[in-house]
Amino acid sequence: MRKQLEQLRREAGEALDKIKSLIDLEKAEIKLLGRKDGKLNAMLKSLKNLSEKEKKQFGKLANEIKNEITALIAEKRLDLEKKETLKAVEEDWIDVTLPGIKPKQGSLHPVSIVQYELEDLFRSLGFMILDGPELESDYYNFEALNIPSHHPARDTQDTFYIKGKIQKSKACPERNRGIKSKENQERLLLRTHTSPVQVRAMQEFGAPLRAIAPGRVFRYEASDASHENTFCQLEGLMVEKNISICNLIAVMKTLLKGIFKRDVKIRLRPGYFPFVEPGFELDIECLICGGRGCSVCKQSGWVELLPCGLVHPNVLRAGHIDPEKFSGFAFGLGLTRLVMMRYGINDIRLFNAGDLRFLEQFGAI
Ligand code: PHE
Which residues pair with 227 in a beta bridge? Predict the structure, then answer.
């Protein structure tokens, strides 16, 4: 019996020495001192078979050993607790003096930068900023703009036609402008210009009216350095009593001064658009080559920047405005082309290519 007890004492010492975690310690404690299956308890139980003398002798020893093991376990527990807390602190430790990691920030698209600038400029002149659907009806894109289905002007603005009906937008209710009438819902297309917003705006707000509508437009077009199937325009519309070409020129001059912050050479040519009468092409001297000729201006030295004119009476009528009472001017600024001029970008395809090396050059937000 003594031998067995001594062996248990030794074993316990060795086993506890090896233990490295509180969980293992818990297990060892149960194994050694546990009431049910603990080794020591098993021995104590077997004492009852011994003589009175032996019972006393070994009972004392067993108690000593029990106390020893209990003390050893307590000591070990303290030690392990300390170690584990230290480890946890070490793992969680943050050096608050280290410099932070800068989050990667996006930047505004160059078209957005210029668009926001123009919005500010027009807002200061009392214009509303409007939005219109990119998926447009044949009616607003052509019919309402005095371009009936047989009209050859349609050939100059070929686009992508889509099956189905116009869906009302929940996210952007402004885009539902004019969606009510039945004829509008059939024959959908990707709008070829921002001009459909003219009629939508007139129908919604009536006259007098000052509004611009920047946005994406689409053409079925082979792409090269100055042509793309997707690009941006900024439509302008002013309807009031007695609007004349003088008002148009005055606003255009204010606009160009605001855009280029300096005097830029311009020229006005007659231009044909079924929805304006008279219509003009406003050209500016090419800012990339300074008028000498390059791929962007097709060696002409001039860049077509801005078609404009006085709103055709039929368009006013489509917008439920009486042409006898009101007149207006409209212009369609080639926003993408303007951005090319501003930053000296010589290939329009860069805008939609999604190449970060290009996009990141235009300054963080
Ligand atoms: N919407 C025409 C186009 O894209 C431009 C334009 C707008 C012309 C307004 C005159 C007046 O070609």
Answer: 224
133 ligand 1 Cβ < 6 A? no
Q: In angstroms, rounded to a whole number, what is the distance separating the alpha carbons of residues 110 and 358?
A: 10
Task: List the residue whose alpha carbon is closest to atom 9 of ligand 1.
Answer: 331
Q: What is the spatial distance between Cα 331 and Cα 212, in angstroms, rounded to a whole number? A: 9
pLDDT tens profile 260-298: 887 778 888 999 999 999 999 998 888 778 889 998 788
Residues 6+ apart with CB under 8 A from 98: none
Whether 276 is in the pocket of ligand 1, judged by its Cβ within 6 Å, is: yes
In which band, very low, low, confident or very high, does the pLDDT at 62 lie, cut at 50, 70 and 90? confident
| pLDDT exceeds cutoff 90 at 181 | no
Q: Which residue, among 338, 352, 343, 335, has the nearest Cα to 213 in the 3D structure?
A: 335
- Binding site membership of 187 for ligand 1 (Cβ less than 6 Å): no
**Within a 10 A sphere around the Cβ of 337, how many other Cβ atoms?**
21
What would the pLDDT profile of 240-249 be if each residue is shown by its tens digit? 999 999 999 8
